[in-house]
Each structure stands twice: as C-alpha cells, then as structure tokens.
C-alpha cells in the first residue's frame, strides 16, 4: 500500500495545476526528512537538528512522549530559497487519553526563527513566518463551530501573539476539523505555497485522497526561512510522532505580467486580506455580546408583559366582582 501511495503522489505532481498553470514537482532531499534519519541530533553533517524532549527511533521522530509537560522539535539547518514549494508531512498522534483528555498538538513551521522553545506547540510566540497547527485540545469553552482536533494556519510578522484562550481564532487564516488521533492507518498533511497562494489539505481517512482544508490567496512569505515541526504537552499529553517531511520544488509556468508583479521582494510575512479577517473575528465577538443583550432584553420584555397581564387581570377581576353586588 505504501508503494501504491507513493506512485499516486508522484504521478499526482505532474498532473496537478494551479488556476490553469501547469506544474512539475521535484523532491528536494536537502529540505526533506525521512527514514532512516541518519545523524539527526548527533551529527553536525545532518540537515536536521533536534530540540527539547524529541528523540529519534527507527520508525519516527518522536517530538513528545505521552507524558505531561514535554515539548520537542526538529528543525532544518538549511534556509529554503524556493519560491514555490509543496510540503507533504506524514505524522501520527496517539496516546492513552480519551476524547478531550489529550493534548496539546503538533505544528509545522516555515519561519525566520528556529530552535527556540516556547508556548506555541513547542515553539516561540510572536514568530515570523507560517505556522500550520494540528490542535487536539479546545481551550476556548464555547467552540460551537469547531470539532477538535482542528487544523488551522497562521502567518505571523514577529509582533502578533498566538491567542491560546481562543485557540488561535483571532489570527486564523482558515482551518478544518481533522479526527487524527489513535488511527490505525497513516495520516498526512499537505501544504502548498505557489504564486503567493497557500493551500492546506489532509489525508486522514485511509483512502489515499486529499481533502481540502483551506485555500488562501495573497499570502506573502519571504525566502530564506526554515522548515520545522514541534509539539507540546501540558496537563494532558499525547505521543506526537513525525514519520517524514518531504519538500518538493514546484516549477510553475508564469506569464510575463505575473513575473513582473512578483518581482517585488517580500521581507515581512503578510496576508493581503488580514484586516478583513480581523474585522470578521471582531464582528464575531460582537455578535456574542449582541446575542447576550438580545436574550436579556427578551427576558425583561417577557417579565414586563407578565406583570402588565397580571395587573390587567386584577382590574378585570375586581370590576367583575362589583357587577354582582
């Protein structure tokens, strides 16, 4: 089945297109992590470096064990200077905890900083670059619109913090639910960045089919950042295992006009419609307040109607008694 899946992935790369633009993909081994993980964490010649509680076994890079208060990561030593790329991540999240009694999740990074511990799934807060998170524990009490585990993407410019209490909602570009824990089959995450468009898909159903998660245009990421993966446990825990990260260079045919439009060098990560997203979340917060006051005034109105009704009924009953004398 693994052979069939790899043939499917390779053939897929030659027939996929982006908005009518033909693409070819080429595996870049210097940016890829896969078995047998030779020299990781012990050899200076390795392209990858371990951090924190992560360990290497014959079958995976275990970012965290199923133990409380652990964090670990693996980072590329080589900055990536590819304009268009595609990252396929093979991972596994499993543990003894039952539903909603596990945490906290796994993150895949393309950032300016590397090898820095922190609270954002084992990486530093106020990061600069792209983070794609597989969040397995809901911190926000009212998460009606979300089913966890949940996959989301965020772009940071070094001044934007990750809101743990709201599970990253204020800075989320988009996301989808992904039931990835304790599965018997393989689970994959697909991240593509081409022509300043970010696409994330998942393959978690054991059917070897990609499912759309998010597709955001106008994402501007600088060259020369580092790929990495990290994970974190707190009071709750899980095994967060990374089996492989395979990076493909995409060759995209562009028109002359497109080439001229993209000549401007990107130095700070940004998203063209980020303000619209912020306004959406602010409106979302206001809608909650509006709902509260709507319910409050409705209850007051109902109470007032009951009081008026009782007064009217009392007057009517009094006048009725007088007619009998």
TrEMBL record:
PROSITE patterns: L_LECTIN_LIKE. Keywords: Disulfide bond, Glycoprotein, Golgi apparatus, Lectin, Membrane, Metal-binding, Signal, Transmembrane, Transmembrane helix. It is found in: Endomembrane system; Golgi apparatus membrane. One of its GO terms (cellular component) is Golgi membrane. Its main location: membrane. The keyword Nucleotide-binding does not apply. GO terms for biological process: endoplasmic reticulum to Golgi vesicle-mediated transport. GO terms for molecular function: D-mannose binding; metal ion binding. SUPFAM superfamilies: Concanavalin A-like lectins/glucanases. Pfam families: Lectin_leg-like. This is L-type lectin-like domain-containing protein. The lineage of its organism: Eukaryota, Metazoa, Chordata, Craniata, Vertebrata.
